[in-house]
Specification:
Elements (H helix, E strand, L loop, with lengths): L2 E8 L3 H12 L1 H8 L1 E10 L2 E4 L6 H9 L11 E3 L3 H10 L6 E4 L9 H13 L2 E4 L3 H10 L6 E2 L10 H8 L5 E7 L2 H11 L4 H10 L8 H4 L2 H13 L10 E2 L7 H9 L3 E9 L5 E9 L4 H4 L4 E8 L4 E7 L4 H14 L1
Parallel strand pairs: 1-2, 1-5, 5-6, 6-7, 9-11
Antiparallel strand pairs: 2-3, 3-4, 8-10, 8-12, 10-11, 12-13
The chain binds NADP nicotinamide-adenine-dinucleotide phosphate (NAP).
NADP nicotinamide-adenine-dinucleotide phosphate (NAP) binds next to helix 1 and strand 2.
Length: 340
């Protein structure tokens, strides 16, 4: 028997667009393997939304965005200026309430911004939430995850690498003694280029030209992105720590001579996020030189990963390789299927 779940997508940029393409491309697979139809009934960008209780056509939404126009301009279904609350209200009034909301707009770490507002709107209507935007978790962890509605956020911590799920599974019967993450692809690429002789600035510019680094790369190279992921991971393991309490040093001022000298000694400099249990847990982000046999040093520079050291379960490590945004969208899809 097929189950249909109505989905609203808030944010149709790199991640949201890739989610739309996956929903379209994998629809037959979802039916066959999970008996599931994920029907897009609402979509939002910066200028408003589009809504159709009977379902929007993902391909039409992708085409609209690839023309550089807003889905709010789509004839009949477009709702210029509408926010997520208005879209959810219209669907509920039509007798077709949304089951699931994907939040993939720009993150606002000051107050959660539109992402947090979208989560709060979903809570009021009993709509499950899948987050790619990390800001609501960082700004309002207790509210967002209090169980009022189911919330998943795989894409926030390591794209398709199941960091939170893996660590939680391991720690069911063991206690963490240390958690380490290397989860910023831009820093991995930049440090790899520095090892081969580049300066940090030239490597960052190269990553921008390749579309790996943002136009403003500061969240990556200054360590905030890694700190945010560490905060979310620690909170998911039961240890919320405010972002401001994370001692954070990025790679902008890293000494290329040190990076190359460590490489010559068989060690790898990475931007390492570390969580050490205590009261509270101590979270740190800083460049670190790891021994060559450390799992996070053995990874290639296209890979990211995490290590969980435990009291009785030994050392658990996982890494993943991703070149573009598709694995992030795959993580969103995974969460949608699990919530559905
Ligand atoms: N890119 C990645 O690899 C990655 C990985 C993990 C997590 N994330 C997170 O996922 C989120 C999206 O990233 P992205 O790379 O897809 O960003 P992006 O390409 O900049 O896209 C952002 C999208 O959000 C829309 N938007 C802006 N304001 C909005 C609002 N108030 N309500 C609804 N939508 C709004 C934008 O509209 P317009 O189209 O009109 O500009 C755009 O479609 C971010 O929070 C990011 O941190 C990204």
């Amino acid at each position: 028997m097929l189950r249909t779940r109505r989905v609203v997508l808030a944010g149709l940029g790199s991640v949201g667009g890739a989610v739309l393409r996956l929903l379209d491309g994998r629809a037959a697979d979802l039916r066959a393997r999970h008996g599931l139809v994920l029907e897009v009934v609402g979509a939002m960008d910066s200028r408003g939304g589009a809504v159709a209780p009977g379902g929007l056509v993902p391909g039409a939404l992708v085409a609209q965005k690839s023309r550089g126009t807003s889905v709010a301009e789509l004839p009949g279904v477009g709702r210029p200026g509408a926010d997520v609350d208005a879209l959810l209200a219209e669907l509920a009034a039509a007798g077709a309430p949304a089951d699931l909301l994907v939040v993939a707009g720009p993150g606002d770490l000051r107050d959660g911004g539109a992402g947090l507002a979208a989560v709060l709107a979903a809570r009021r209507r009993g709509t499950g939430v899948v987050l790619a935007d990390k800001a609501p978790l960082v700004v309002a962890w207790d509210v967002v995850t209090d169980g009022t509605v189911p919330v998943r956020y795989s894409a926030c911590v390591g794209a398709a690498l199941p960091t939170v799920d893996l660590a939680r599974a391991v720690l069911v019967s063991a206690a963490a003694t240390r958690v380490e993450i290397v989860l910023n692809s831009t820093c991995q690429r930049v440090l790899g280029d520095v090892e081969r002789g580049s300066t940090v600035a030239a490597a960052v510019a190269g990553a921008q030209r390749a579309g790996v680094a943002e136009a403003d790369p500061s969240a990556d190279v200054d360590g905030t992105d890694t700190a945010v992921k560490l905060v979310v991971l620690a909170a998911a393991l039961g240890h919320p720590v405010p972002l401001r309490a994370v001692a954070t040093t990025g790679i902008r001022d890293v000494d290329p001579g040190w990076v190359r000298a460590e490489r010559a000694r068989g060690r790898a400099v990475v931007l390492l996020g570390t969580a050490v249990p205590g009261t509270p847990w101590a979270l740190t982000v800083a460049p670190a030189a790891l021994d060559g046999d450390h799992p996070l040093a053995r990874m290639g520079r296209h890979e990211t990963g995490l290590v969980v050291d435990t009291d009785v379960a030994g050392r658990i490590a996982a890494s993943g390789r991703h070149h573009d945004v598709v694995p992030t969208a795959a993580a969103v899809l995974r969460d949608l299927v699990l919530l559905a």
